[in-house]
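Let us work through a complete example step by step.
Step 1: write down the sequence.
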Amino acid sequence: MNTLSSRLPFQPNSPDAAGVVSWVHVGDLHMTKAGEQNHLDLAKIVNEVNQAYSDSISFVFLPGDIADDGSRSAYAVVRGELDRLKVPWCAIIGDHDIHERSFANFKEAMSEQTHYAFTVGDTRFLAMNAFDVPEPPSFTVSEEQLRWAEGELELATKNAQAKVFLLHCYPSDLKVGGVEVSRLVRDYDVRLIDMGHTHYNEIANDGRTLYSATRSTGQIEEGPVGYSVTNLDDNVVSWRFIELGKLPVAVITSPSDERLLTKSGEIPQGILKIRAKFWSNAKAQEATADLCGQTYSMKRVGDSLVWEAEVPAPHEGTHPLKVSFKDENGSVASDEIRFAAGQHMERKSEERDQDNALEAWPEHGLLGTELGPNKNGKKW
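Step 2: predict the structure and record it as tokens.
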């Protein structure tokens, strides 16, 4: 355990050769001790990331609730696996991480800072602490952290950077500071908030900002274990949950699915550039895009895992867009989205962030079940 504090400072990888920023999100681990199922699953996730993602993602993100009881021994199990990762990783604090009412174990094992910021390409990430008061029920963002966050957002705006929050929960779940965090999100056009806490997969879209939550790894009530992959391709956000052991996988990174469009999204006119990223244990051999009854060949972008094609933009309306890959082993994978051509209507939104959750989208891992402790009165 004495080696836990010896990890190098977190430094994310640059965007891939195609300019896409990608990261893997490993949902709440709730680790207790070695040999239990969540430990075995984490080990398999690390293996899969090392095999298929290590040269194409910027970092791995852990959204809090890493150690179920906040103990040093639980963190030791987690670090034993994370230290094998071939890609940088970062973590934030969840309510279970401070069961001992102290930041000491988290700071020793995961991060010397309870909140921090970093840049990948043209995006500024703010890793926030939803528990400035180190007690599990607090859900508190302090005035000091709010001032820090606003300063970071002002500087990011000056530098023409996109902004992403890493936060354990929806801002509306905060008991102290939630209104102020929501104001910052609105005033500074935060593009995405990537979260844990819910224990189920969910994406909310209020027309300005996307909120993505990834299923717990250690306490699951919906579906199988896995992880999510998020991509930022210029101003387009894409997200997909990947079941453990189900490679290969494809994700269309541009254009946006109409369910993920916000006011910052642009609907292409004239020529449409289609881009998709492919992860497998073997290299992609060919890729095609199917749109409006036409099939187009795609070409790889440099030495990245991104393939692209420029095609005529379809007439106004919503159209299915499918991209398919085949790798050197003969394995195939595809992704399909709903592409909105022409002008799109303003999205109606509810005042509370989580009330804007998308309906089920099983192809991307959204089951729409809301099975988890937080909305069902359970205490995990």
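Step 3: interpret the result. Residues 258-341 form a domain with the Immunoglobulin-like fold (CATH 2.60.40.650).
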